[in-house]
Design goal:
This protein is of the alpha/beta class and about 230 residues long. About 30% of the residues lie in helices and about 25% in strands.
Length: about 230
């Protein structure tokens, strides 16, 4: 999972200063805050924190590993420095195409990461609203990964490069939204159970309705699945 840290100085500029420090995962809106990926999953009854360690260096500032308490499913999330959102976006797109696969050691053996993961996720600001990325290499048959993109209007901005790389959109968005971890958690619940895209979409919408206080009808319009 790629998490592009919120960054007031270089991109968003829309949140309280403490939450928008792109060099500080601990307080960041998308990582260490109450609904950030690290904090929300650490407090979840369904997930156990296995490890939290500094990343390999900029652009990845921290990496966390969670394991589902009932299923043999692991979640690997990398916090990318806010100013490096271009790199975060590019890495996500390459991972979704099945490229740049890696592994990490876990007690049961090796765990596939990057383009080798079963599901690839992007969380953060939709940087493609502000910049473009190089053309994605055409995806090879069978290499593309299921992908979730929790960012504003991600279907409109990510569709081109995602399709080029062969990624499969399990969940993305149609308008402005808060890419907070309760949506991710709800969607993963469905994915772990093997539910289809529509059921995963419904779970995401129900979580957004609950936490944001918007109507369920509006939340359903905000999320989409497939092409």
């Amino acid at each position: 999972m790629v998490v592009a840290l919120c960054d007031n100085q270089f991109f968003q500029g829309i949140v309280p200063a403490k939450l928008g420090k792109g060099d500080d995962p601990a307080s960041n809106l998308y990582w260490g805050a109450a609904f950030g990926v690290k904090t929300f999953f650490r407090k979840s009854e369904d997930w156990a924190l296995v490890s939290a360690a500094p990343g390999s260096g900029a652009p990845v500032l921290e990496r966390v590993l969670f394991k589902h308490r009932k299923k043999d499913v692991y979640l690997v999330a990398d916090a990318y420095r806010g100013r490096d959102i271009r790199r975060a976006t590019w890495d996500f797109l390459r991972f979704s195409s099945g490229r740049d696969a890696g592994t990490i050691e876990i007690p049961a053996g090796n765990l596939s990461t990057g383009g080798g993961a079963d599901l690839v996720v992007y969380v953060g600001h939709d940087g493609l609203m502000d910049f473009s990325v190089p053309a994605m290499p055409r995806g090879e048959a069978g290499r593309g990964r299921d992908a979730m993109i929790l960012a504003c209007a991600s279907r409109g901005y990510f569709a081109g490069p995602l399709r080029q790389g062969g990624g499969r959109p399990l969940l993305w968005t149609t308008g402005l939204m808060a890419p907070e971890a309760y949506v991710l958690k709800a969607a993963l619940d469905g994915w772990i159970l093997g539910e289809d895209g529509e059921k995963t979409r419904n779970r995401a919408a129900e979580a957004y309705h609950k936490y944001q206080g918007c109507s369920l009808k509006s939340a359903l319009k905000l999320f989409a699945t497939g092409w």
